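Fold Annotation — chain and its backbone
Next Lines — sequence and tokenised fold

***
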Amino acid sequence: MPVIELHLIEGYDDDAKARLGRALTDAVRQVVPAAPEAITVMMTEHSSDGWMRGGERRTPAPALPDPEAVVLGFLAAMKARDLDAAQHRLSPDFEMRFPGKGPMRRLEELIEWAAPRYRSVRKTIEGTEIASASGATTVWVHGTLAGEWPDGSPFEGIRFVDRFLLEDGLIARQDVWNDIGEARAAGAAP
């Protein structure tokens, strides 16, 4: 039964501490074959006046936003075509790659590139998965696409997987894989 003891400066809210506890539990399970209920995470909080590093009193850095919420918020903003709200979730060096297209850096590039491919597209999200390593967090989103081809005829049930790389709480990269090309080649598109 693994036990993790963590010391924090007071100031993190309950949501941040819960996310931290789940992340530590998941990290242990990558190495130790233990059920989640067998892993104990104990957090002890200390007031900032009882915490020093380098001879200086410290205050906690703000918690990073929930990476899943960042990604789902980005996708919701894109669905609503609220490019300003979507842009606020992107790092300055953001890059995205879609099937058949080299890197794009601006959301407007994506909209221009997609215009001849389909009139509209909606994502039905079936699941998300989160992994963290080397200071970055990856959020995988998978499900199906539905929408209209350029002539207005409908399509649905096209698989997709999006991989988002987050750094410092912002989306730095989006990689997209889907079967739109295969659906078109099979005659699903006019």
